[in-house]
Amino acid sequence: MQPPRLQPGDEIRVIAPSMSMAIVKGKQVELAKERLEQLGFRVTFGRHVDEHDLVFSTSVENRIEDLHEAFRDPAVKAIFTAIGGYNANQLLAHIDYELIRNNPKILIGYSDITALQLAIYRQTGLITYSGPHFSTFGMKYMADYTIQGMLTALTNDAPFELETPETWSDDKWYLEQEDRTYYPNEGPVIITEGRAEGRLIGGNLCTLNLLQGTEFMPSLKGAVLFIEDDNETHLMKFDRDLQSILHLPEAKELKAVLIGRFQKESDVTESALISLLKNKPELAGIPVLLNVSFGHTDPMATLPIGGQAEIAAQNGKAEIIIYGA
Question: Is pLDDT above 90 for 265?
Fold first, then answer.
């Protein structure tokens, strides 16, 4: 089930189902709102978006209230998450999935929001979007790639190619925005060549693993698994987290695996990853791509969870085509 496309003049509701928006600097909130308004949208905020406790979140009840109100309000056409965090999975057993099923609309975010997105897709069939948070739009120097990728995914019905931006960065832009380091982007690294087509399922790997064995874990049958992790991971943790996914019975029916670029702080090097991935017999025979431009580095693509993807990785060239539904 694909939500209605976002159109000029539509209302975007910002909610904080994980960490509070209070941790985002006021100037970044102002800039994010201004940037989205310049794109032609109206921005409103959930009632509890700035509340926070000792772990910089707020109660399950208040976060659920904002989520349900955003889906219930007919004026709201898209829901942007304020930021990620650690505890979105606290909400899953308390969500009114029937309300969401009857009021389908865009939900976009990434990182810890993966838990919310996969649970909603599993319970309702609604396609959600792994892409920028509201706070991402508060970057002083925001890449056109991120903005255009979001617009293409949320406003357009036609298939689109996941192109490679010219450069990338993983600087802490929210701390220092005047002196950022950019690196040449050589595009995806092909670990295993091949062609495949399937449903996009994935997001943040360590968050996805929280759903194993629960009613909120989507099926991996026929899936193109896309995974990424942040600077809190390291090579051995990524290895065992990925292996845990590959042990699932349905993982035998994966069509392809896409891995987002790692932040430098994680110390997960390209050469180590190549060695690790080539040593997984479960991945033999399906296309596997590394350093795809989604996740915790900048700029980032927007991917529809539950949408379709075609992967062609042959003769050293990789092509990823995305279909909304």
Answer: no
